[in-house]
Design goal:
With about 270 residues, this protein is α/β, with parallel strands linked by helices. The protein has a single domain, classed as NAD(P)-binding Rossmann-like Domain (Rossmann fold, 3-Layer(aba) Sandwich), CATH 3.40.50. Helices cover about 40% and strands about 15% of the residues. It has 11 helices and 8 strands. A 6-stranded parallel β-sheet has the order 2-1-3-4-5-7, sandwiched between helices. Strands 6-8 form a two-stranded parallel sheet. Helix 1 packs across helix 6 and helix 8 runs antiparallel to helix 9. The longest helix is centred in the first third of the chain and has 14 residues. It comes from Paractinoplanes bogorensis. InterPro entries: Ergot_Alk_Oxidoreductase (IPR051604), NAD(P)-bd_dom_sf (IPR036291).
Length: about 270
């Protein structure tokens, strides 16, 4: 490899996103020199010619593809970025991935080909999608309409995701590991909505897509959400995993804790 950047900063992509801003904050709290980058800084997954200016001197990097690693073509871009990172002496890579998504698994494999010791943080459905994401408006209005409301899912708290990723970036011993991070219990979307003070109602997927479009969501995000709520919600994720316990030595945060905090914040 030749050059290493043992004293360089940690680079955090998608630094204003759900996980990225929390990873950045945790690294900063640990006293680690961390640098967040977003599109507004000139970083673009589709502009590899500019990547060297972001990677030069960096010792570790958090790879979070926005809007989601399940997007078509994401894996090839993240793998190319990982390859560029290695060429610039970046020693430690931590990648955010999605559970049960075939495109995400293909992306993980593509990155592991060029950087086999990448740490992968593979997540179930984020609890924070209910208050920071596409579903926030529904919850605020008191009615959550979805194509699937009765499939159990081990909702993971993004605070746990960020803590796992930050730990893997900050210290040795996590290289090549796969942490499958979920919450500690299964809840249906109907149960989750109830805990958040809302009611879930099942609607046909085409009707739901039209609602999302009317709410102003971009077409590629609507396609992604429709994929997640049709193909991925077929029961394949009806199990909890212990990635949080493995990485942090403590249980994952329960959805009830997240729900209580969300309701308190809204009060």
């Amino acid at each position: 490899m030749g050059m290493t950047n043992a004293q360089g900063p940690v680079l955090v992509t998608a630094a204003t996103g759900k996980t990225g801003r929390r990873v950045l904050a945790r690294l900063t709290d640990l006293g680690i020199d961390a640098r967040g980058i977003t599109r507004s800084d000139g970083f673009d997954w589709d502009a590899p010619a500019r990547w060297p200016e972001f990677l030069t001197g960096v010792r570790a990097a958090y790879l979070a593809y926005a809007p989601d690693i399940a997007m078509p073509g994401a894996g090839a871009k993240v793998a190319a970025f990982a390859e560029a990172a290695r060429a610039h002496g970046v020693e430690r890579l931590v990648m955010l991935s999605g559970r049960g998504e075939e495109t995400a698994l293909a992306s993980e494999q593509a990155v592991r080909v060029v950087a086999p010791d990448t740490t992968i943080v593979r997540c179930s459905f984020f609890a924070q999608n209910f208050d920071e994401g596409a579903l926030a408006g529904y919850i605020a209005a008191g009615t959550l309409t979805l194509p699937v409301i009765d499939m159990p899912e081990p909702f993971v708290d993004v605070e746990d995701v960020a803590e796992v990723a930050a730990k893997a970036l900050a210290e040795p011993g996590h290289e090549g590991r796969l942490y499958e991070v979920t919450g500690p219990e299964l809840l249906t979307f109907a149960q989750a909505a109830e805990l958040l003070g809302a009611q879930a109602i099942a609607v046909p997927v085409d009707e739901w897509r039209a609602e999302l479009a009317a709410a102003g969501l971009p077409a590629d995000l609507i396609d992604l959400l429709a994929y997640l709520f049709t193909e991925v919600m077929d029961g394949r994720n009806r199990s909890v995993a212990d990635g949080v316990q493995q990485a942090l030595g403590r249980p994952a945060r329960r959805f009830e804790e997240f729900a209580a905090e969300m309701k308190k914040a809204a009060a």
